[in-house]
Structures are given as C-alpha cells and as structure tokens.
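Meet our chain:
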Amino acid sequence: MLRVLAVEGGSFRKGVDKKAPAAFLFAEGIRPKRLIVKWVEVDGLDATERLKEAIKEGGMEEGVIIAGSVPIAGFNLIDAKEVLKEHGLPTVFVLREIPDKEAVRAALIKHFKDWERRLKIIEGAGQLEEVVLAEGERVFIEAVGIEKDEAKKIVEGLTIFGKLPEPLRLARMVARAISRAIS
C-alpha cells in the first residue's frame, strides 16, 4: 500500500495573522493513519522545516508527499528538492488551476527582498502537466523526484471525489477547519 503524506495550509487573515496552521496527514492509500498539525509563518520560509519535522515525527521513510501547491500560508514555500535530498521522498504538487507565473514573479519582486530565492524554489517544482481525472475533471501536477507518468497514476489512483487526492482533500478540510475555529 502506498504511503502518502498530504500537506495543506490553512487560511489566514492578511495583515492580521502572523502564523497559519498546516496539516500533515499521513495515509496508506486513501486511508488516513495519522495527523500532525504545525504552525507556519505567513510569508515566512519555515514550511520546508515544518514538513521535515512532520516526516521525522511520522516515521515516514518511504512513499510520496502530495501538496496542494508549493506555497502555503501566503508565500511560505515547500522546497521539494531539499526534502528529496534530505529524506529521499518525492513530492507531487496538485493544483486546481494553472498559476499565473508572471503575476507570481511580480508579487515576489514587490514584496520580498529574497524574491530570487523564492522564485527558484517555485521553479524547482518542475513543469506543469495536465491530468484528466474520472468524469473529465482536470488538475495540473508538478513532480519532484518522481516520473510524471508515475505521479499521474498516483493522483488518479488516490482521487475518488472531485479534483483532489483523498489524503490531500482531508488535509485541506482539517487545515481550513482549524483556521475557522481560531479566527
């Protein structure tokens, strides 16, 4: 059974909240096994460290990481190449829409002194590729440390309802529920 670590950030109030919850849901296939919640800085650069902590705490030595996007909590970024290098775990990012690369670049330049570093992390997530799911639903994936065909099969196999793989859908629900509860 494929071991999965789904990562999703919760919502936050721009200019008000300094941190946002991030849900790290461990699953075997579509079956949830363990949940770890950590706090990440809004627009910080600690998402990768929190992910690596969750990997260690969850004892994940093999499997795949699935995340809703490279940035969580604003522009706090998951550096999938760093995670692959340190833990040997591939990452598949599952996006509902194609991001506007020029708008992202412009926002990074406008708001961050370290925009080049952040842009390099985003660009390091690989090339977008469309995946057509059952019932014609479309998502876009980026993959690090895993072939695109294998990443597609994983996303297709874990997606039952809607556009998101089940572990990711559950992680998103948890992160958003925590955000609503604290706001």
Summary: Helices lie at 47-58, 80-87, 101-111, 115-123, 148-158, 166-182. The radius of gyration is 15 Å.
